[in-house]
Amino acid sequence: MEAERWQRVRLLFQQALEREPSRRAEFLAEACEADEALRSEVSSLLAAHEKAASFLATAVPEESRQPAIPLSPGTRLGPYEIRGLIGAGGMGEVYRAFDSKLGRDVAIKTLPGAFARDGDHLARFRREARALASLNHPSVAAIHGLEESGGVHFLVLELVAGETLAERLEGGPLQVREAMSIAHQIAEGLEAAHERGVVHRDLKPANVKITPQGKVKVLDFGLAKVSPSPARDLDSQVSTAAAEITREGTILGTAAYMSPEQARGKPVDKRTDIWSFGCLTYEMLTGRRAFAGETVTDAIAAILTAEPDWGRLPEATPPGLRNLLRRCLEKDAQQRLRDIGDARLELAEALSPRAESAGAAARRTRRQVLAATGALAIGLALLLALWHPGRLPRQPPPARELTQRQITGNTTDDPVFIAAVSPDGRYLAYTDFGGLHLRLIETAETRVLPVPDQFCFR
To answer: DSSP labels for 146-173?
Structure first.
């Protein structure tokens, strides 16, 4: 979307929010006049905003939004002894714990009170925990169980050492090859989940961990969606991301990675993970979010109406990866990449030694052709500069009397041919990798002249 139109959409959206909900449609009809597309864009933003607010009002009661009292080190939940707090978010706290039965460290994620007290939510979590327990892939952090002790409902998860992708990105964008390697492993994990009918719905840098050995683990599948169905209620469709939104003006978190259909509160399927995957990969390459904004409203507006700044991608980004990102970030889910397995294959090909060798060879050949062409051109100029001035012929020699020698390279279909006629019109000088060639036009006699060492191409 053009910057001027985007500013217009944003202004109308803010003005509409200042009015009573019942008067917004009338305001837009008057403000947009005959521009139906403009009215539709602003209406989509308003609908997404209202659905997010509705979700909070119905699915997350006020008492559950209050910060819970953290579990102190030494607290026991059945066989698990809490060792310390790892982190906290809108969906509960995560602790490091020790499993005394199996003698291993695990991660314990407690569930917010509202979900723990809701029978429907608990039933769904138990059902989904069983499905997620069947996932067995090296790029997915395992879930060991959903348990309860002393009134606390919690997930038992694999404890993964290392830093999150969010922490890694604090240092700026990653090298292209490193970004592709991480993206490839994320795609492998998502593919394994999608084959089991599991949609993550909350893929973001904080939910990806990189071990000290460089292995990638996708975290927090514990609240994913299993076997997506359009009949699910709004709370099943907006997912964990919406639970982190509290009010307009809150600094955005997960909202930056929502797909357009997710931001609108519509039913989602595995293509919503493909969108988030595109956002992650873009951010790894550029060090910036694909859809930036200071507030939830700004983020949703950018997701629904704006395009990523494709010019920020590094010059070294392979063309295939550029195309893959565009397909992942199609706003229309029908036009988006259909299967994350296709992304995995594309990245595997780009990371293969054959592709790396071919790319290096192509870059080397380009440099060589340019260097050779430049050196020979300089040599040709010096040769012509030694000739005494004379009159140019009225008509150039017929082309059939000349034998063109061409400079070619593996990276182009168009040959490079550098030639010049001497000022007196008697000689044709041209270049190739063999040196400088001087031909007497009248007799076609040709002599190869040595190129000075400083202009030679090796």
So the answer is: EEEETTEEEEEEE---SEEHHHHHTT-P
Cα–Cα distance, 33 to 13 (Å, whole number): 15
Which amino acid type is present at position 342? D
Beta bridge partners of 109: 94, 155
Q: Specify which residues 419 forms β-bridges with.
A: 430
Token pair belonging to 303: 């997701």
CB 143 within 8 A of CB 132: yes
31 and 12 in contact (C-beta within 8 Å)? yes
pTM: 0.64
State whether residue 451 is helix, strand or coil.
coil
- Output the pLDDT for position 426: 76
* Alpha helices for 18-137 (secondary structure H): 21-32, 36-59, 113-116, 119-133
CB-facing half-sphere around the CA of 388: CA atoms within 13 A: 1
- Among all chains, which residue has been given the structure tokens 């090298």? 175
Query: How many whole angstroms separate alpha carbon 105 and alpha carbon 127?
Result: 25
Q: Which residues are catalytic?
A: 202
Those residues of the chain that have pLDDT short of 50 are: 54-67, 228-253, 386-417, 454-458
First to last CA, the chain: 49
Concatenating the DSSP letter of every residue in 72-95 gives PTT-EETTEEEEEEEEEETTEEEE
